[in-house]
Amino acid sequence: MENQLKENTQWMGARLERKEDLRLVTGQGKYLADIVLPGMLHAVFVRSEYAHAKILGIDTSAALETPGVVAVLTGDDFKTDVKSMRQPVLLPNLPAVYPEYFALATDKVKYHGDPIAVVIARDKYTAEDAAELVIVDYEELPVILDAEAALEPGAPQVHDDQPGNEMFAMTFTGGATEEEQRQNEAEVEAIFKAADVVVSNRFRVHRTGITPMEPRGVLCEWTMADGLTAWITTQRPHIDRLALIDILDVPGEKVRVIAPRDQGGGFGVKAPFFRENVVIAHAARKLGKPVRWIESRYESLMSVGQERDQVNTMDVAATKDGKLLAVRNRGIANNGTGQTGVYWGFVMPFLGQVEMPNVYTWEKGDVKLRVASTNKACLTPSRAFGHFPTRFAVERSVDMVARRCGLEPSDVRRKNMIPKLPYTTVTGEYYDSGDFLKVWDNLLTNIDLPAFRREQAALREQGRYIGIGFACGAELSGVASELLVPMENQPGYGAATVRVDPRGKVMIYGGDAPGGQGHETTVAQVVASTFGIDPKDSIVTTGDTGATPFGAGTIGARAGSYFVSAVHKACADLKEKITHVLSHDLDIRATVEEFAFINGEVIYLRDPSKKKTFREIVERIIMFPVNLPEGEVGGLEATAFFEAAKPMICFNGDFCIVEVDINTGEFKIKRWVTSEDVGNVINQNIVDGQMHGAIVQGLSNAVYEEFIYNEQGQQMTADFENYKLATAADVPDIELTYASTPCVHTPLGTRGIGEGRPSSVPGALSNAICDALAPFGVEITELPLRPSSLWAKIKAARA
Amino acid sequence: MQTVTITVNGEAFKEAVPERLLLVDFLRERLALTGTHVSCTYEGVCGACTVHLDGDAVKSCLILAVQADGHEVTTVEGLAKGEELSALQKAFREEHGLQCGFCTPGILMNMTDFLKHNPNPTDDEIRMGLIGNLCRCTGYVHIVRAVRTAAKMLAASAA
């Protein structure tokens, strides 16, 4: 790191090697499964074999007789000993019909994989064996798997306390009253009646999501004196703590949650509050011994990481010269059982409709959503939270308008792009700052489009089909309280404690819980820039509710916007104090602005001979708090909370070039190029890595991954042989370019990035394929993009 | 139970193990070498548990501890020589070839073996070499770059 020490100690934007990596490349990371407590017991769940069935009885006797088995708990233990999972802290402020449920299934099971019992044994092999011996007597019930069918009268009921299977319904446009909404619908209909061009489609996006490489896990220890310490793979330890307090009904001082320092990816999947947390915590309480559960991949793919699964019936009206006028969308989402705290599945499709209009200047919108409960696993958040399907629909629709008008899709996008920010969309989403046109124009500098069209035409003569596809997306950069309170019943502010050490080191404590995003490095760079010290002199602690200020979690790209801004604010508060004392010691009257924090020194700018090293002055304030200025006390620690004045966004444009083999339907991505507005960059490597990962996740979702249930609701893809993630050989290199605008609402001009980024991928890719196949008039309206279905479309078009 | 002697990272361990104990569990639970990870849960798909058995990359979830009896195993903990990281370890840090790091030990072990047999690989060859390792964070771009960089480092140090 020595050679990276820059003269002016300005660390912003540097491609600094990550502080996390030395331990991770040497096998010294500490993930949940690496934590072992003396006397620890191992838990294995017994899960439902049916998608919908009454539990007539559970025979645990054979399991209990197995040597080494300590206990078997079933739903009855949880119905009586702890509260239901439907606690206020886990309920969004949205008017949904929230079914009551318990940590283990009681009375009936509602999806294939529903947890019924837990076997706890002295070693995991024994627990696995004994779990096989638990005999559940089921009475099968009719299964409902399709969202639209679930909303039909007479459909089988998933939850007894949710009549009609409608979890949630909302109109996003027109106003608050039904009358205003009807009026809006009529006005939109009038636009459609008069429009030159109307494009109407039914877009279906399959069930897929972002499966982290590290499965979930919970380790709980319970002592009489201190209560519960719970290590959980989680993105939001502080929320988990509140939920455990309320569900287990224990006093708050007796619950501490720790998200391990190293977590093997989250992507939203580890953001909800899960039932297994309650089961393991309660088991530890009941048994008086530490209990650990490590999720198997089979359980994981049955239970979590499933998102998307929407049908969007979308109409777009436009003029013949490609001006977009109105969008009408009817979304239907397949929620599964909805049995997951914080999100209840439907919060993702809710936000998906909010974000649907993207960056276009629609005059009017008419947008409605219905969310149905079915006998599938509950949707869990997955990066590009909710809007992977709606972004696909709108980006495909824009291309279809372009084709109908005989225009270049990139021109139609540019023509309709919001030219100036801030802007509030037809669904009420606020876009704070940036320059969409600058990003778009930068994207187009990476391709000579007329030359590409000539090449395309020439190749078509030879029977080869290449195409170019464009898409773009505005994404949330952190989630402001203004949105997070109504959406998830949680605060959006960033929080950080900065503690300066007498040796001149800086400890930073954050309540969020990262899973690979490099917070330790990013924050160290911010602190180094602010205090003029080296990043190696910072130590970041995250995830421990016993040590960190309250934070809503590592969600929605909050780190680069909210967390680092809180860190910066805390540092700024401490600089005030440091310079106050230093002025006093130097016998000058000066404000903080008259000092430079640079190269490990604090220098009085009007007379640079007046200075102290950072270490000297902080040690003096912490260790020798005598002869201080009047009213000042010793010590150097500050906690700051940051809330931006407005919700913030980041933005990207993508294009890709593909070649399609019309005889097989196979396609190859030849180039993937992006243009990004990420605001001011803290660590360029980390930003690049976020983009690469998100784009490939989008490709993997769009082309390879699909959760498949058979007609009985059996999950057929609960292993990585059948749930296929893209490998290195399946995906292209990614060419990233940047055209950023500093964010006006953060102190460092940074934006939170990466979360929504996969959403523009399916649009760009399918637009490219359709462009390649334009001679056949092939239009893609469904994902995944499988060669077999493309081949069928090509064949039908040629017939 | 069966008594086995397995040499791990140069140290011989004589242990009584159940026949069904997987090598990955032997390493993680008996020897507390937790750098070897489990992601696909014993299906041999994800590659996170890759180690070397007598120098060859193998998935330690597909091998029983008893099958390693009398053999030499190297895990990610054994890649560095003291504080001197291997070329691949250095390259992964330089090129930001990892994010969450969960798949990384398996990739390092697989690619160490790969580079031994392919000292000057093309990007396509690296990508093909990686199909036994799943990564969810990086999109593989920086991983490919890191392997390429490591190959150059090794070539330079051999020259």
What is the CATH top level name of the largest domain in chain A?
A: Alpha Beta
Count helical runs of chain B: 5
- Helix/strand-derived class of chain A? alpha+beta
List the uncertain runs of chain B. none
* Full CATH superfamily name of the largest domain in chain B: Beta-grasp domain
> Any idea how many domains of chain B?
2
CATH fold-level name of the largest domain in chain A: Aldehyde Oxidoreductase, domain 4
Biggest beta sheet summary of chain B = 5 strands, mixed
β-strand number of chain A: 28
Q: Kindly provide the radius of gyration of chain A, computed on alpha-carbon positions and rounded to a whole number of angstroms.
A: 28 Å
**Strand-residue fraction of chain B?**
15-25%
The CATH class assignment of the largest domain in chain B is: Alpha Beta
Number of separate domains of chain A: 3
User: Which overall shape of chain B is indicated by the principal axes computed on the Cα atoms?
Assistant: globular
- How much helix, percentage-wise, in residues of chain B? 25-40%
- Largest sheet: spatial strand order of chain A: 3-5-1-12-9-10-11
- Give the number of helices of chain A: 21
Write a concise synopsis of the structure shown.
The complex is a heterodimer of chains A (799) and B (159). By secondary structure, chain A is α+β, with helices and mostly antiparallel strands.
Describe the structure.
- The complex is a heterodimer of chains A (799) and B (159).
- Chain A has 799 residues and is α+β, with helices and mostly antiparallel strands.
- Chain A has three domains: 181 residues, Alpha-Beta Complex (Aldehyde Oxidoreductase, domain 3); 329 residues, Aldehyde oxidase/xanthine dehydrogenase, molybdopterin binding domain (Aldehyde Oxidoreductase, domain 4); 150 residues, Aldehyde oxidase/xanthine dehydrogenase, molybdopterin binding domain (Aldehyde Oxidoreductase, domain 4, 2-Layer Sandwich).
- Chain A has 21 helices and 28 strands.
- A seven-stranded mixed sheet of chain A has the order 3-5-1-12-9-10-11, sandwiched between helices. Chain A has a five-stranded mixed sheet with strand order 7-15-14-13-8.
- In chain A, β9 and β10 form a beta hairpin.
- In chain A, α11 crosses α12 and α11 runs parallel beside α20.
- Chain A is globular and about 90 Å long.
- The N terminus of chain A is likely disordered.
- Chain B is α+β, with helices and mostly antiparallel strands.
- Chain B folds into two domains: 77 residues, Beta-grasp domain (Ubiquitin-like (UB roll), Roll), CATH 3.10.20.30; 72 residues, [2Fe-2S]-binding domain (DNA polymerase, domain 1).
- A five-stranded mixed sheet of chain B has the order 2-1-5-3-4, with helices on one face.
- In chain B, α2 crosses α5.
- The longest helix of chain B has 18 residues.
- Chain B is globular and about 45 Å long.
- Chain B starts with a strand and ends with a helix.
- The relative contact order of chain B is 0.16.
- The mean pLDDT of chain B is 97.
- Chains A and B meet through α1 and α19 of A and α2, α3, α4 and α5 of B.
